Amino acid sequence: MRRLPWRVAELVEVRHETTTARTLVFEVPGWPGHLAGQHVDVRLTAPDGYSTQRSYSVAAPEQGERVELTVELVRDGEVSPYLTEILEIGDQVEIRGPVGGWFVWRPERVAPVLLVAGGSGMVPLMAMIRARREAGSSAPFRLIYSVREPDQRFYLDELASPDPGLDVAYIFTRKTPDGWARPPGRIMPPDLAGASTDIDSFVCGPTGFVEAAADQLIALGHAAERIRTERFGPTGG
Amino acid sequence: MAIVSRGFFGRRGEGDVKLPPGQYLTHDFPVLSAGPTPRIGLDRWEFTIDTELGETHRWSWADLMALPSETPTLDLHCVTKWSKLGTGWQGVSLDVLMEDVETAAEYALAYSYGGYTTNLPLEDLLDGKAWVAYKYDGDDLTPPHGGPARLLVPHLYLWKSAKWVRGIRLMNEDWPGFWETAGYHNYGDPWLEQRYQGD
User: What's the number of CA atoms in the CB half-sphere (13 Å) around residue A40?
Assistant: First the structure.
């Protein structure tokens, strides 16, 4: 089998998601395409030849040679400050992928889906939501998206737009919007309880969040083999 | 030749540390796994080695505790790019577990509570290169990190160090495991940067 090559990726579009996160759209000549939920490796090289790599989830389904990432700033990180604050339209990085054949949703799958996002764990789940919409899939999707505060939500306008069959619920752990019924707090079983456990679940976020949410799904009667998880540690920026 | 990213200078920091290509140093201990964390009671925990001839060797938790253990200090390299150096473990060497196992098999498939599998050549488990570990940093290994016991094969990427390990099947033929059938490299040597199929 052929080695996945590093490809030159040029930044062609930027969208600000929050004060600390932005979506980067790259044009990657030769890109072979990808599935919703997969990730890519990004490599940065300095003038003296030093280079470093990180993995980022892709935020949108396959769209020709475009690869869209949403990157959250990790203050003491090495790569995310560059990607969120320095990289400009026309600048180049290198991308290798796609990677990961497990945490993916395929449009031909018709089973109902539960998406559980913690913080920037929303990114690969957004790729799934967009893939569903683009494919005209009728698989019912339910998103539970946990953030610390209201202004930390990614893709807010898009998730507020009508998308029949997609149900969106927010959990605020620190501070809620005014008049919000659920008090601020971490994810709990009532947040995840629903009519059926006959669903595919995708859980993505920091380790503690994923541990809690997956344990709660198990306790609610979900089968472990239908819960797919993706975790990221506090480092990795 | 890699292209240079304008305005990127990088952070060398701990410059005298030698890491495998493409890895960066971390001091915390990230967790990666594909599904929920299984919880296994020690009363029903067991570890087995099945040979290619159909012979089964079995250890209860008490059996494992009664075996001589080692306390290796190991460098860990995860395919997701982080490396963590000088981690302290306690566990039983696979050499001890294999002592009475008669086999001519060349391949091993480690399997876990929760259904995870990973494959590697049997020789990579022998001669002081692998352990069934049950303590990390002096404490019982917690479930998110693979407790009560996990395989440790530190010279390969960490996905080969199966968490919640339940047994090892010895085989004449190579049988790709969970990540090995999902696009990751069959062998996974971090020093050769064998991350994905074809690397």
Answer: 33
CA-nearest of A230, A236, A229, A233 to A73 is A236
Q: Is the pLDDT at A233 greater than 70, yes or no?
A: no
How close B21 gets to chain A, by Cα (Å)?
A: 9
Span A44-53, pLDDT tens digits? 999 999 999 9
Domain contains B76: yes
- Write down the ipTM of this complex: 0.85
Binned at pLDDT 50, 70 and 90, residue A237 comes out as very low
Find the CATH number of the domain harbouring B146. 3.90.420.10
Which helix (H) or strand (E) covers residue A181, if one does?
Answer: none
What does the alpha-carbon distance between residue B181 and residue B92 come to, in Å, rounded to a whole number?
A: 29
Question: Does A235 score more than 60 pLDDT?
Answer: no
Assign domain A7-99 one CATH number from 2.40.30.10, 1.10.3720.10, 2.70.70.10, 2.60.40.10: 2.40.30.10
Range of the domain at B46: 24-30+39-192
B25 touches chain A (CB under 8 A): no
Interface test with A, best of B6, B8, B185 (most A CBs within 10 A): B8
Q: What CATH number has the domain spanning A113-232?
A: 3.40.50.80
